């Protein structure tokens, strides 16, 4: 599956390495070396995927992700030398779909790219059915979510979680099952990722995220979407 990929990396050697690997897989690649250029290029020619370094001049990768996520549901794979859990959660909280720490294997990076592109394709090509769970509606064809008629802006990962839950209201899904729906099997990403996405979704769809009425926790098991009009 060939795609248009934007690489934002200020390390020239690293950027060239990533470019070569992506081009070997048949992708069209555009490379920029600072955050301001990443935003401008993504707006000029929207990519299918952004490989985004965190530590960049002018505008850092976290701010780039924040800006572009407000405008687009493009898949974002963040790269960073930081490796703490707080950094991982911050990147996901801002809307990144996946996160890799440096140094990394280029082959693993390509595997992550393939996973994200497959997921984006599934989201576009998935069934035409609209899913309804109480006041929540998920439309895979239009890639939209509405809560009580009001549109809800979701990242690609959040959309896949809601789509999976809304397809079977009141069914309890484990974190591992939701992770599979989001990323496919990937031993490098933990179930904690799902918790972060659920926390973000509750901010968007719940009247009181601290007392969720729609996206419910089933303690010791996982999550479910209430099928009734709560």
UniProtKB/TrEMBL annotation:
Residues 128-227 bind DNA. It comes from the Bacteria. GO terms for cellular component: cytosol; protein-DNA complex. One of its GO terms (biological process) is regulation of DNA-templated transcription. Residues 4-117 form the Response regulatory domain. Keywords: DNA-binding, Phosphoprotein, Transcription, Transcription regulation, Two-component regulatory system. SMART domains: REC (SM00448), Trans_reg_C (SM00862). The keyword Ligase does not apply. Residues 128-227 form the OmpR/PhoB-type domain. The modification 4-aspartylphosphate is found at residue 53. One of its GO terms (molecular function) is transcription cis-regulatory region binding. It holds the Pfam family Response_reg. InterPro entries: CheY-like_superfamily, OmpR/PhoB-type_DNA-bd, Sig_transdc_resp-reg_C-effctor, Sig_transdc_resp-reg_receiver, WalR-like, WH-like_DNA-bd_sf. This is DNA-binding response regulator.
């Amino acid at each position: 599956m060939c795609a248009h990929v934007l690489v934002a990396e200020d390390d020239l050697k690293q950027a060239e390495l990533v470019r070569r690997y992506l081009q070997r897989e048949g992708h069209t690649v555009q490379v920029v070396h600072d955050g301001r250029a990443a935003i401008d290029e993504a707006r000029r020619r929207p990519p299918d995927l952004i490989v985004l370094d965190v530590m960049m001049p002018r505008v850092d990768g976290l701010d780039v992700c924040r800006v572009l996520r407000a405008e687009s549901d493009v898949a974002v794979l963040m790269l960073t030398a930081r490796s703490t859990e707080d950094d991982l959660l911050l990147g996901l909280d801002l809307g990144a779909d996946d996160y890799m720490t440096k140094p990394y294997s280029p082959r693993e990076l390509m595997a992550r790219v393939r996973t994200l592109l497959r997921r984006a394709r599934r989201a576009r090509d998935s069934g035409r059915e609209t899913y309804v769970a109480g006041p929540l509606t998920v439309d895979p064809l239009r890639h939209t979510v509405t809560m009580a008629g009001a549109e809800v802006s979701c990242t690609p990962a959040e959309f896949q979680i809601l789509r999976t839950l809304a397809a079977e209201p009141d069914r309890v899904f484990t974190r591992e099952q939701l992770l599979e729906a989001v990323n496919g099997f990937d031993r490098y990403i933990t179930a904690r990722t799902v918790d972060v996405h659920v926390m973000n979704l509750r901010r968007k769809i719940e009247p009181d995220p601290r007392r969720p009425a729609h996206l419910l926790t089933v303690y010791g098991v996982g999550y479910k979407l209430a099928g009734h009009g709560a």
